[in-house]
Amino acid sequence: MDFWTVKNITGRLLVGLRWWNFVDENGNNHWKFESAKDTSRFPVLDRRAFWIGLVLGPLMWLFFVTMAFFTFKWEWMIIALLGLSMNSANLYGYLRCRWSDTTQFTNYISKWAFLSFMFLDLVCVVSSRQSNIRVFSDVYRVS
After folding, report:
1. Are 111 and 103 within 8 A, CB to CB?
2. What is the average pLDDT value for the chain, to the nearest integer?
3. What CA–CA distance (Å, rounded) separates 62 from 69?
4. In the chain, which stretches have pLDDT less than 50?
5. Which of 58, 55, 44, 57 is nearest to 15 (CA)?
6. Is 109 helix (H, G, I), strand (E, B) or coil?
7. Do residues 94 and 125 share a domain?
8. Which of the residues 44, 46, 105, 118 has an alpha carbon 20 to 30 A from that of 124?
9. Mind telling me which residue stretches traverse the membrane in this protein (predicted)?
């Protein structure tokens, strides 16, 4: 029910995105992705809530899969894997709607990876400077 609702209703109403898959008479799969041209008519709060919920869904199911694996609850892991696969398919479909061109998607992921690397590098530099300050203060004790 959640998969169908998000895929067919909330995506279109909250962010103006819709995707679907159909099989033609030759048995070939065809994926269709639609996005609204004017996204300014969708409130920012609605868009953020949609994307946060869409990303948190697969993360939640991944947590359930991990817990079922480590507690040896194989039958629950199968159910969690089903939820993970459906939510991941929804996330993939909406990401493809958002960036219809694969180069746009690749550029965004590359930019995100670069920024997260720079943030991690900044955190390492700051923490190493703090550790140098501690070492310096330990060597030269000021009375």
Report:
1. no
2. 81
3. 10
4. 132-143
5. 44
6. helix
7. no
8. 105
9. 49-70, 76-95, 107-128
Domains contained in the chain, number? 2
**CB within 8 A of 99, min separation 6: which ones?**
105, 108
Indicate if 96 and 106 belong to the same structural domain.
Answer: no
List phi, psi (to 5°) of 23.
Answer: -110, 125
10, 71: one domain:
yes
Give the range of the structural domain holding residue 50, as residue numbers without chain letter: 2-100
Residues 119 and 80 in one domain: no
Model-level pTM greater than 0.85? Answer: no
pLDDT digits (tens, 9 = 90+) for 9-46: 888 889 999 888 889 999 999 988 888 888 889 999 99
CB 39 within 8 Å of CB 51: no
Q: What is the dihedral of CA 87, 93, 99, 101, to 10 degrees?
A: 140
